[in-house]
Amino acid sequence: MTVVAIVGNGPEELLADLDSYVDKVDYWIGADRGAFVLAQNKMPIKYAVGDFDSIDEEEKVLIQNSADNYEEYQPEKDETDLEIALLKAFELNPNEIYLFGVTGGRIDHELVNIQLLYLIRNKGIKGVIIDHVNYLELTLPGTYEIIEDERYSNISFIPYTEKVEGITLTGFYYPLTNKTITWGSTRCISNKLSSNSGTFSYDKGILLLIKSRDAIPK
Q: Coiled-coil region(s) at which residues (predicted)?
């Protein structure tokens, strides 16, 4: 299995602990200032891409000396730096893609970054957004197992499509059986597992799984 991780330009205080993912990731890609974060932490960089308008010349030199491949783009372009990084990730034929540093900051970027999970899933790849507080994964109809994770004890399900039908939750504090939720519904917000594991399943629509911490850790 091949795992690619992309680090974006989000606020560094929201960045997950990248060191804890070193053994899980085969290739690291830095998008704009995300490449500097990787270089600064002496992480291996397969690709450094973007317009690099958020770094100075000294930081740029560090990136260039640290990356296997450095590609600088003009600021006037059709794709965001993160989407360019994602296209590079697809070339590596991954089974999973982790996105770090893509939440917080400007809400327009955050919302479109979450939508990129749909692009990833449509290619048959598991895509996950991870930050200091949250874990987000876009799912398609089917049955999924969730293992208890002390880091992210709150579990929410948000409809990505206007309607999600046939949701069933087992092993949860608030179970459900064959229910339908729509945009604007808060019915599946902030649930918890009632044992070490649980399952969720649904028949139609697209569902966003969000696991989060109780509080922002310091």
A: none
DSSP character at residue 139: E
Q: What is the pTM of this model?
A: 0.92
Architecture of 138-212 per CATH? Answer: 3-Layer(aba) Sandwich (3.40)
pLDDT digits (tens, 9 = 90+) for 142-162: 999 999 988 889 999 999 999
177-213: pLDDT as tens digits? 999 999 999 999 999 999 999 999 999 999 999 999 9
- 96 burial level (CB within 10 Å; 0-12, 13-18, 19+): middle
DSSP run (H or E) holding 166: strand 163-170
Buried b (16+ CB within 10 A) or exposed e, 114-146: bebbeebbeeebbbbbbbbbbbbbbbeeeeeeb
Query: Which SS3 state, helix, strand or coil, does residue 108 take?
Result: helix
Which three-class secondary structure state does DSSP give residue 39? Answer: helix
* Domain extent listing, the chain: 3-132, 138-212
CATH topology of domain 3-132: Rossmann fold (3.40.50)
Q: What residues contact residue 136 under an 8 Å CB cut-off, 6+ apart?
A: 114, 117, 128, 129, 130, 208, 209, 210
What 3-state DSSP class applies to 78? coil
Q: How far apart are CA 39 and CA 109, in angstroms?
A: 23
pLDDT under 70: residue ranges of the chain: 215-218
